[in-house]
What we know:
By secondary structure, the protein is α+β, with helices and mostly antiparallel strands. Helix content is 18%, strand content 28%. The protein is built from 24 helices and 55 strands. The strands form 13 sheets. Strands 35, 38, 39, 40, 43, 44, 45, 46 and 47 form a 9-stranded mixed β-sheet that branches. Helix 3 (539-546) crosses helix 4. The protein is globular. The two termini are 67 Å apart. GO terms for molecular function: metal ion binding; nucleic acid binding; poly(A)-specific ribonuclease activity. Its EC number is 3.1.13.4. A divalent metal cation binds at residues 987, 989, 1096, 1148. It is found in: Cytoplasm, P-body; Nucleus. It catalyses: Exonucleolytic cleavage of poly(A) to 5'-AMP.
Amino acid sequence: MNFEGLDPGLAEYTPAMHSALDPVLDPHLNPSLLQNVELDPEGVALEALPVQESVHIMEGVYSELHSVVAEVGVPVSVSHFDLHEEMLWVGSHGGHATSFFGPALERYSSFQVNGSDDVRQIQSLENGILFLTKSNLKYMARGGLIIFDYLLDESEDMHSLLLTDSSTLLVGGLQSHILEIDLNTVQETQKYAVETPGVTIMRQTNRFFFCGHTSGKISLRDLRSFKVEHEFDAFSGSLSDFDVHGNLLAACGFSSRLTGLACDRFLKVYDLRMMRAITPLQVHVDPAFLRFIPTYTSRLAIISQSGQCQFCEPTGLANPADIFHVNPVGPLLMTFDVSASKQALAFGDSEGCVHLWTDSPEPSFNPYSRETEFALPCLVDSLPPLDWSQDLLPLSLIPVPLTTDTLLSDWPAANSAPAPRRAPPVDAEILRTMKKVGFIGYAPNPRTRLRNQIPYRLKESDSEFDNFSQVTESPVGREEEPHLHMVSKKYRKVTIKYSKLGLEDFDFKHYNKTLFAGLEPHIPNAYCNCMIQVLYFLEPVRCLIQNHLCQKEFCLACELGFLFHMLDLSRGDPCQGSNFLRAFRTIPEASALGLILADSDEASGKGNLARLIQRWNRFILTQLHQDMQELEVPQAYRGAGGSFCSSGDSVIGQLFSCEMENCSLCRCGSETVRASSTLLFTLSYPEGSNSDKTGKNCDFAQVLKRSICLEQNTQAWCDNCEKYQPTIQTRNIRHLPDILVINCEVNSLKEADFWRMQAEVAFKMAIKKHGGEISKNKEFALTDWKELGNPEGMLMCPSIEELKNVWLPFSIRMKMTKNKGLDVCNWTDGDEIQVVEKLGKGWRWGPARAEEEHGVYVYDLMATVVHILDSRTGGSLVAHIKVGETYHQRKEGVTHQQWYLFNDFLIEPIDKHEAVQFDMNWKVPAILYYVKRNLNSKYSLNIKNPIEASVLLAEASLARKQRKTHTTFIPLMLNEMPQVGDLVGLDAEFVTLNEEEAELRSDGTKSTIKPSQMSVARITCVRGQGPNEGIPFIDDYISTQEQVVDYLTQYSGIKPGDLDAKISSKHLTTLKSTYLKLRFLIDIGVKFVGHGLQKDFRVINLMVPKDQVLDTVYLFHMPRKRMISLRFLAWYFLDLKIQGETHDSIEDARTALQLYRKYLELSKNGTELESFHKVLKGLYEKGRKMDWKVPEPEGQTSPKNAAVFSPVLAL
């Protein structure tokens, strides 16, 4: 089933948000379902639930026969009736599979299929069961033994499988292809391209394959060629489910509405004989699942998420009398299946319960089922008991079969590894009284523990089903008990776990399953990552920034535009803002405002992050406004286009600026009026709000109006009195901004108590609005909430959790009055815009004819930035952002809006109410962004690449002593400008700015806490074709103002002084200048050839599409083998001795080009990979014999001395 577009409540049951299980039963669980059920310590039911004897099944009418608990609290993701035996299979969101035998649902087997991903589809075969997860296909016996485990590409996101015959399987998902897998050889035999990506449901008849897409379309494909024969555009939003029987196809799904996706109550029915739609079938439930149940007629079963089921004929009218209700333990039904005999229906809900409905007291799941094999009874029970307290008892009394085979307990060394326990912390009393002599400490025994006995605390198992528990986390706070922490897992500070390979083996996809890009947090001053994401998802700001390019070396607008471009190109991979933060650290105003944190303060969390990010918010808006407002001057970079805005005002000012009149009234009667503008507002809270404990209601709109139209008494200079006098300062609004930015200023307990109190008042008012009365000192229980209305009415009301800790409105309405006043009120989508009209002597409210005419504007909440209070890690900053339709269209090909949580590289969709819920104990609001409706229509959203080809032409060096004789490259001529697909050899050299931070564990292994910070020092690009092939056209040394810790001369060839403009003899330039050259090459579509380009692009801070990178590291690499150095490859294939004393980027880039030519020669342009595979085997065999070391040359030769370099020496 396609879960996209379902009820927002489903977001609570995704694996990333599923809370850790506790052995105590969920209070929402019906106690009657759990009678006589034994629970193991992990909270999983061990036996099926007995059927109550009072259950009466009427023949021919479906009624509930049994309900069992598969896993307490873990949502059921898929159910499947076994096609060969009388069994029901269930998969969970925790990756666990459980089987039940017969209509009594006796537990048969239970095992883990995947450690982190949910089970998405189950298919029974004769010898076992197929389980499909996100990127894994596992075939297991019915008892739990693995037959094969087929790993798919990590980029795959599989959702559906279809068994076409006994040995062929089709697997589809959100990607643009469908895989065909041979079950006999367990290999991929075919890959079919899909024009419309997102195949989440597949069916088959004797005529067609049917593929259901997330876009709402259903395609009919040929059984042999898999080509599209016909296509039905069923729904405008998304497809939920469909089924085929005979000549009829029925589908249910979602339609696009102004507010998003809405469940369509019309089933689309198609006649497969004429290939056209017939009259849609209107049903009385919200359809989420449907199946044909053909017995005497071709009737349909339509199931809703809330548990309503309706039977109807596909060509008739639906009768409300045909509706029955499944009573799920959880609020939602997650899965539905029909047995092959049509006698049984299975439902799985969000609390882990399975419900079996049948039409007879003794149903059978299949017409002809084979006998199920059960485990043999334990023979040990018949043996006499052994007394273990007897030391002389011979162990030979324990019967052991005589065998010559290897025992199961004899694990091979490859599958077993020692796992030492972590030593417990030293007693605080010992540390306090310890005296040190050298490196040895002495302390008296406090006698708090027994001698030579240390109690070890075993790891708690209550986080087994937590999605993030499978991922290695930060070493900070490992000893803390996670369940004692009130901060939700997804809101905690995330840290990258480094290994020997750096980041290559760190799985970011555990934290981000979307196609949006996160930001890495290990860079200094990366606390602003959340605000960068907020600015990026403002469409006018994103387009404006990417169109900007100026002459300044350290321009925040330019660097932010480069970073936005990387976020555009990324498909879920994290980016890093190293170049932006590098420019940020050079701005004097940032240092003066205290925005530059020291590494120690940032790591320990000493700074107040809430105040810091609010100051940063004001700084970045002011800085961008100034960068856009500067006068157009001759461009330092020839690729820079014209100024995006005039010198008078910038587009940033038009978006954020609010024009005001500041009036100062002295007690002498003189009034002074001055015009000003501001880019954001700061909330000003009512005085004495903390002392008022009666719960006085104060709308957010009232506080906002008070903050905008601020009135205060202060001492000011009066020209009339010619001295300082008490004056009344008032502020009137002349023009409202298009984007309303608000700093919350919750910096003390007083403001926090005000938010908490207003949230409680709003909570009580919301309950009264929905029909409930709450006394002042009454706590509401779950049973009280059920009495607030009938089920139909409750579906229209928000849930209990959605109303808690909410004071902030999703929309506000502002109106400019004629007397320069401002009306502000909270706004809901059901309200009608009204304006004040004058009628005779009075005023009245009437419907608005046009918003703009009367100055009435509605602002919608777009983002909230919150401060997470976490004593373990010092706190962090996260953002809730409402991502618009244009971003989803570019990334996912669908048009809808969705709220997301951005926590550095953790990105997760959330319910919209979570964005306005602030538990002041750990989640404190810092910044709010409100956006005027229809904002995008006012601004040009076109992005024109401002980088032109002239950036590649010759330019002057920053070095004063550079001479022409030292020139190592020839710039490109106009007739040599690269074209799409041209080859460019690339290599880069780096220097170290900060050493890495690591800790040494007790077992002697090293753990990297923070990697070394590298900076690019030299970039070389070599021509890859033409008469001048092999001659560099870029060889730039990058000037740096930051202190270099290590020049790495042995590996980089960079010497002290090469990067200093005063003494360097190299072609020295700025990082921005060289960055623009590489950006132009990427945008034009050239293909870069090099060795280890992934690290090069990462340090340069570039995002390059994978199809534009030809890395010799991977071209000459075999799976699960070591990477081979460029030096060894050059010696083995080219008979070249390179990198003798130091590395040279020109030499390395040219060698990589030659290796790529050799690869094309050996593989016949990639057509004869088998023969090339044999060459690689010989390479690895030679490498092992040589210990991967190049023999010392008798006479040192190098490609530097080749004739191809002579034109450069002639400069």
